[in-house]
Amino acid sequence: MKNVLIINGHQRYDEVAEGKLTKLFIDTADEFFSKNGFNVKHSVVESDYVIKDELEKFDWADYILFQYPVYWMGVPWITKKYIDEIFSAGVNTVTYVSDGRSRHDASKRYGSGGLMQGKKYMLSLTYNCPTTEFDDKDGFFDGLSLDEANIATHKLFQFCGAEPLETYAIHDIFKSDLDIDSELTRFKATLEKNFITGQ
């Protein structure tokens, strides 16, 4: 039986970002994992979490599902605080040993000192921007793909040795014609691919 840690990276802003969409995706993922025989634990960045407890969850997890809204092209600031606190506190035990370089072995490269080898993670993002802004040299992101535009989050997991699964993102979340049922179907198909058929 595999272990999954679901991280709720939402930060609330009244009337603009109350967290309902994030919760919907987390509830959908929780149901999916429970139905398919996974053990599930949850973390909430906007809470009075205990760093030691969070590190125990990271150590326990085989998979990490990181669900968060993209604010100003990155993670919410409270989510960055969570990352800084948890990943830094895990040095020599859960997240990394060093930056990987060695005075005695020049082949050891920066970013190769992670302790999370064998773990896999999935980013699930909520966006206001449309999908058309990615993979288009004339688009807002200058031709960057979705994953390239979120490189900082990917690199923090890579630094710790974890491997990426396919990213999911919902776009144009404030549009009145958003088809949430279709999006949830696509989300569940991505979960199926990442955690069942792709194992």
Q: What does the model show?
A:
This protein is 35% helix and 16% strand. Helix 1 (20-35) runs parallel beside helix 6 and helix 2 (51-60) packs across helix 3 (77-89). With 199 residues, it is an alpha/beta fold. The two termini are 12 Å apart. Strands 1, 2, 3, 4, 5 and 6 form a six-stranded parallel β-sheet that branches. The protein has helices at 20-35, 51-60, 77-89, 146-149, 151-159, 180-197; strands at 3-8, 39-44, 63-69, 120-126, 163-164, 168-170. Helix 1 (20-35) links the parallel strand 1 (3-8) and strand 2. It has one domain (3-197): 3-Layer(aba) Sandwich (Rossmann fold), CATH 3.40.50. It has six helices and six strands; from the N terminus they run E-H-E-H-E-H-E-H-H-E-E-H. The longest helix has 18 residues, at 180-197.
The CATH topology corresponds to: Rossmann fold
Number of domains: 1
Strand content: 15-25%
Number of helices: 6
User: Which structural class do the helices and strands define?
Assistant: alpha/beta
CATH architecture classification name: 3-Layer(aba) Sandwich
Determine the mean pLDDT. Answer: 90
The level 1 CATH classification is Alpha Beta
Q: Give unreliable regions as ranges.
A: none
Oligomeric state of this protein? single chain
What's the name of the CATH homologous superfamily? Flavodoxin domain
Largest sheet: 6 strands, parallel
First-residue to last-residue Cα separation: 12 Å
Helicity level:
25-40%
* Coarse shape: globular
Order of helices and strands: EHEHEHEHHEEH
Count of DSSP strands: 6
Rg from Cα: 17 Å
